[in-house]
Specification:
Length: 348
């Protein structure tokens, strides 16, 4: 069903869409990953996800005194749709919602052992991100979902390649969640790199200076001064600002902490050094129109630690004032990469 006032533009033929995703040149394994999900319209698909427990971060990571590694999981599934985790958000301390950059929602619940450490996932299901016509898209170009922010029963999803941020509702029925018109930005989204768009999308605290506004930050699209494009969407301080990049790390997600500071998840990759992961804390009161923000590094780890292509982060406040940070990786549906879920504790 098309919402009133919305134009429903049919997509290209199945053959053309498959060619656009590169499936025609892929191996049998990759063909399976690119194939249609065959999820009935309006429904979600329950899937089984296996977990191997990670007890040590390993390597020689640099952690701030306030940050400790709690544990983690290496995730796998026989369902070809599983993987390419780009963003994760928690609706309560156990239930999460995320997006795959292949154009799917994922929902599920955390399982914990007697000591409160991650032990597995249950109630996991996936559903396609529908287009304006209420249909699943097979074109990676159209559904390259990279970021997610929640506001009640709405989920704001940031896409790259075809750059835009749209609101999906209702989240209570993912199989039927429909997109809004794209949100208006204070800068032209066409200036963003095709593979470096809105990678971080966060909802600011209601009681802070941004008054619950959305904050969007690009992955690696920079202005003439070399700073990342960023925007405050709505609220009393709407406008654009910049984030100063450091040490060739690229921004892959972020989350506001209860006190109002912004925690950025960043990634670095090179043939020489492999994959790196970093957490950088930005003072919340520095985020305002016209600002160029930077902050302290809380964590830096390389491939000798139990990390991979870390792309999604969220924070779960705890009764003692600390915060549990959940970080997930995008395996790109590659046998050389892993889907990880890592947990850290950030002291008050």
């Amino acid at each position: 069903m098309v919402p009133a006032g919305r134009a429903c533009v049919p997509e290209r033929s199945v053959y053309a869409r498959l060619m656009a995703t590169g499936c025609a040149l892929a191996t049998v394994f990759m063909l399976a990953a690119c194939s249609p999900a065959n999820i009935p319209t309006g429904e979600t698909l329950p899937i089984a996800v296996d977990s191997d427990v990670i007890t040590e971060l390993g390597g020689r990571p640099t952690l701030a005194p306030s940050l400790t590694f709690v544990g983690g999981l290496e995730l796998s599934s026989s369902e070809p749709l599983f993987g390419a985790f780009s963003a994760i958000r928690f609706r309560d301390p156990q239930s999460f919602l995320g997006v795959f950059d292949t154009g799917y929602w994922i929902t599920g619940r955390l399982q914990r052992d007697a000591d409160g450490r991650l032990s597995g996932l249950d109630a996991v299901a996936v559903a396609p991100l529908l287009d304006a016509c209420g249909r699943e898209s097979l074109s990676k170009f159209r559904v390259d979902a990279e970021s997610l922010a929640l506001d009640g029963d709405r989920g704001f999803v940031g896409f790259e390649q075809r750059h835009r941020v749209v609101a999906y509702a209702p989240l209570s029925d993912l199989g039927k969640a429909m997109p809004s018109e794209p949100l208006v930005f204070p800068f032209d989204l066409d200036i963003l790199h095709s593979n470096g768009g809105i990678e971080a999308l966060m909802t600011a605290p209601l009681d802070g200076q941004l008054a619950g506004a959305l904050v969007a930050i690009s992955e690696k699209s920079t202005d003439d001064s070399g700073n990342n494009y960023a925007a405050i969407l709505g609220g009393p301080m709407a406008g654009e600002f910049r984030v100063r990049p450091r040490d060739e790390f690229e921004i892959t997600d972020g989350v506001f902490l209860p006190g109002g500071d912004l925690l950025l998840l960043e990634r670095r990759f090179s043939i020489a050094t492999g994959v790196g992961m970093r957490l950088r804390r930005i003072a919340g009161d520095t985020i305002k129109p016209g600002a160029v923000v930077d902050g302290e590094i809380l964590l830096e780890a390389d491939y000798s630690s139990q990390i991979d292509n870390m792309e999604g982060i969220d924070a779960i406040p705890q009764p003692d004032g600390s915060v549990r940070l959940i970080v997930v990786s995008d395996d790109n549906h590659s046998i050389l990469q892993r889907s990880l879920m890592l947990e850290f504790r950030l002291a008050q």
